[in-house]
Amino acid sequence: MGSQLVQTLRQGVWASLTGGWYHDPDQNKFNNSCHLYLWMFLLMLPLLLHLALPPTTMALSIYCTSVTIFFITIKMVNYRLHVMFDEGDVVTPSSLSVIQGAENKSNTSDSCLPPEETYCSDEIAVSAQAQMVIGHHGGAAGNCLNKIPGITFDSPEDDEQSGAENEGEPLSKVDPAQLQTPSPDGQITKELMSSDSAALDCRDPTPLSTTPDNSSSGIDIHSHPDENDPPDLNVDADGFLRIPSTFRKYGPGGRTHEDSIGESSETSTQEKPSPKLYYKLKLFPGKWVNILYDRLTLLALLDRNQDVVENIVAVFLAFLVAFLGFILLNHGCFKDIWVFQFCVVIASCQYSLLKSVQPDAASPTHGHNQIVVYSRAAYFCIFCGLIWILEQMLRRKDLPVSTVYGITIVLADALTFLRDILVGLTFCFPITFLLGLFPQINTFMIYLLEQIDIHLFGGTAATGLHSAVYSIFRSLTALSLLYGFCAIINISIGFYSILKEPWDEQHTPALFSGFCGLLVALSYHLSRQNSDPTVLIGSAKTFSFEEGEDSEDIKDPLPEKLMNSVKEILLSDLVVCSIAFILTFAITSSTVFLSLKVVLYALAGTVGFVTHYLIPQLRKHHPWLWISHPVLKSNEYSQYEPRDNAQLMWFERLYVGLLCFEKYVVYPAIILSALTNDGFSLSHRKNCDVLLMTVAGMKLLRASFCNPSFQFVTLIFTIVFFEFDCSRASETFLLDFFIMSIVFHKLSDLLHKLNFIMVYIAPWQIAWGSAFHAFAQPFAVPHSAMLLLQTFITTLFYTPLSPFLGMYFTSTFIPPGCDDNNLNSIFYEYLTRSLQHSLCGDLMLGRWGNYSSGDCFILASDYLNAFVHLIEIGNGLVTFQLRGLEFRGTYCQQREVEAITEGVEEDDSCCCCEPGHLPNVLSCNAAFNLRWLAWEVTTTKYLLEGYSISENNAATMLQVYDLRKLLVSYYLKSIFYYLIESLKLQTWIKDPSITKALVSYTKWHHIERDPAVFSIKIDEDYVHCLQGVTRASFCNIYLEWIQYCANKLEEPVDCDEDSPLVTLCYALSVLGRRSLGTASHNMSNSLESFLYGFNTLFKGDFRIATKDEWVFTDMDLLQKVVVPGVRMSLKLHQDHFTCLEETEEPAILYKAISNYKISLVICHESDPAWRKAVLSSRDTLLTLRHMVDDGTDEYKIIMLYKRHLSFKVIKINKECVRGLWAGQQQELVFLRNRNPERGSIQNSKQALRNMINSSCDQPLGYPMYVSPLTTSYMGTHKQLRSIWGGSLSLDGIKTWLLSKWVRKDNLTSCNSGVNMEDVDCAGGSSSLSHNPNSITSQNLSLYQARPNRTSQANRQHTAGLVLYRRGTHDTFKGIVHPSYNIKLVSLPGKHYRSK
């Protein structure tokens, strides 16, 4: 614990304060020294230049140039070294060139004296043609401990020559004594094996060393000896090195190393030293230097930039930090000690580009985070850029004084206040980054663009950086188009001139009406589009199968449905936007809006109150948290296990009708009325802000189209506040409504945060588990002011509220995660697809209550607990993400699940007594407890299509030997069935290689006697006296079944006792049982081994014996005969317990196998076919699962049945989720809490802390499945389509008109080829029929065979079409709109010919 605390303080706290620099004792001196000198250089350079030079452009140029050159040099060298490691051009020591000479000998011997203690770094050694030679005094010249880095540019020719010279010189000349390093006591220690020990000696051309045990490089180069390795050192009987007396080294006190070795009893060096590896760094073509270094040491020294672009960005940011920082220093923004503090901030921002803080307080992942490298410098540039701009603005003398909503704003004072705040935040960079107040720069940009798009332009949400940029670009494009329309009007007639002249109350300018129509059309279209551009480009790729996994028999229907939904939206918008433009133009051309304000306000308030408050409260599980049962109940509320789809109730139809009326009529009318009235009043006041009107109108229209749940509250408050309370402060209604929509959004977030805080810290909610809580709670009182300030700050900037009281404020939001390959995750994946079909429609039907962007829900059933996050709410679409929790969660999760599922209706207590409660009303205690929860049950019977799981223990079904014998019998019968039903049967029977291999099986006296395979306990055809299985015993048991299956074939096949078919069946029966025996390891004695072997075959893992290798003639014999037989036998064995005698009949057994082959999917869960079958909505699936959990080893037979599952829908306070996730990130990533039983995942029933934290992405949580961002469309919901009739498109309108043009006399005179029940002879109304006789293939071919007729003939022929609606079923796709079916009718007496 102490070491972890010290590591956190060093790598977390101190590194965050300095920007990444800290002393790491695990690193070598070279790295630590470089880090220190780099940081000091970056700190002192701006400080000294500012103090020594006047604040001129020259000083700025010197500083910026120095920093840029410095960073370019470091980044270039770092990049080139990593490229060198990637290429891996390794140079062995024997290839180094040798330089010999008498001068080098004398110079080297004179310069190398034996010092007492010398050090040099062995981390970097630039070696090129340096040689250590032996002196004349009987000593080694190589005992100099200072390295001589000689850098020589080599050429390929020189390298080859030097290599040739080295070949003639034996390696045995290298004396082992030269490799020894003296320790202070004269002993040879294991520091010889460490790079952090005393440095390498000056050595000969074949330097030898070993990889250190605690090397900074971290690369172990120990290898097997080869012919190029140096000779082993001589070792005596005691294990000590033998050093010749000629090469003795003298240690302190004149003692020789030989004496030291003899006296030492601790050191025994028997490993052979391995040569160090040199990397070849190419400088020019044909020129290089040899580098003794490794990648891990380089990564410990400097962060790696992956490509050239990242290096350019880092250099540019370093230059920008230097430029902006020094400009502010020159402008005199900082005085006295604050100059030094600002230089510390500059140094920390620049140093983080070289060696960043890892992990950072705002990092959501463990390990190296590349985004964090740029975050600090990017924030510095943003803040200093704003400060510089404000400084330039404050230099102006003509700053205006304005009044907004009655508040006088002195612009100079406001800008000065804002500048001082930014300067203070810049000074506090070390503290803010330590506490994680600033998220990653990409997260910051996402949130900034998202908030701008939401609050200014009425956007929905952003799912990533590309989504945020796309949304802003889309909104700005629409705004530019509208504003450009105003400019065109101004050029032609003059939009401003329209407003310069007062409007007549009886006339509205036509061009203004055109502007309003265009505004409504664009706002409607933008509200219908997803913020993610990839959905528009290729929505079919969301859940498509991986490449190479598509199969013809199982096809995923979802991609095509999603693509059709996107196309349907685009085609519908084309029509609806045109109609909206025309209607808006027509309505605004009149003066109806000048006199309907009060009526529209009253209508909006009434409809909004009924739609978004009264009906949702009456449908809640506990209306107003007082009533024990919902007032408006669904049809499934009282059903135990609903089997059908949820029925559409009358109040759901009412809710949808009121919602559509409110979205498409009421609020557009209110906003258009405000535009008209404001334009009329502005024309009399001689001023107009067209841009502000356009922004406000587009924002309010888009927000109303997307989700008007809280619009009526905002509208009522706007009217009351600006009409009665502060009427003088009002600007215009449109602007007032626009401002209040932003204010109410922030107030809603503040309310959620305060609710979470009160619930989380309430004294009666705390689990008093220790004496610490007795005095810890009172100490939370001083935090109240800080917590309140924290709440307001996080609300203003829309950041999560961390649960630590006043400790950590904000953090980055966790990005989407991925699946952890758990076998049960497929159920959550299918649940995601079911939600994709129905979620948007169910939300619009009010089945989840009120909702908004960012809301979080939990779907709880018997075994599935899914966390659903609504990310984007659009007009007719919802983007969400599902996170699946564990099936069998921890103790804490189970306690929270119990809190969700348990009812409070039976609670009779009130305070300390139990007086009971009124009928259908909750008790006082129950109502009080429900109000102190961060979650609420909104629906108890929400139906969703999914799979119910039934499991049986395979051990109980195979405990008795007779049951195992039955399973083996079904196993063989299934093999024979698949063999006979195969299309290759005749080929296999006539194959000469198979016939030759099966000669022994044709003999009646042949006996299979393998005791590990055949046993009387499990084989029905086992002959006890012969101790084996014969052909006769086999035919006695299985011949009847083989002949029955053969007789079912259309082409007859010989199936008597001596037929090749029976021989092949007999051989396959032996092969199947031998494979089972091989996999079971003596299956007759142990149930565990039998189950293990059967499970191995069920997965498709076969171990074929040598005598059975004939099956490899055609692998289909294994894959399409034996493997399906194993799997089918499991199902037949299960059916044996339900119908004991019926399965003995061949006819019943044959029919059962034939039905299961079509309707049932049987395979292992790891098989790709299993996932395809689940995602393709197959009705029934079966598998065998081996479960090993908590010491239990079980085999489960799992059966899946597709049906409607019942869920409870629990709405969670979204600020509770964001706060807990942010706290998890701080605790696990930055504070490095590794305790598996940490307090943050303990159960907290009032906040569902365990379920929320466990649903977070790894490494913070441990969800079983995390879906990608998924979009649900309104058009895929069948019940909703039945209400509004499908999307409006040109094809639909054309088809409807054609259906209305059919004459009644033609319908009543239909010929006998048409079923009269299928035709509505009373008129043009639709009728629904499923009679197959109503559609004749002859007429269809007639219609399709005449595509080239003249237009007149086509019109006449079209008159004979009778159309009827059929929901969403597709028939004759491509002829008319998919929501219609065509029935071709022959009209008697009418002959149509082309003229």
TrEMBL record:
The chain crosses the membrane at residues 36-53, 59-77, 312-331, 373-390, 425-448, 454-473, 480-498, 510-527, 569-588, 594-615, 700-721, 757-775, 787-809. The keyword Calcium does not apply. Residues 151-271 are annotated as: Disordered. Residues 1054-1279 form the Pecanex C-terminal domain. This is Pecanex-like protein. It is found in: Membrane. Residues 178-197, 207-218, 262-271 have a biased composition (Polar residues). Residues 155-168 have a biased composition (Acidic residues). InterPro entries: Pecanex, Pecanex_C. It is a multi-pass membrane protein. Coiled coil: none annotated. Belongs to the pecanex family. Keywords: Membrane, Transmembrane, Transmembrane helix. GO terms for cellular component: membrane. Its main location: membrane.
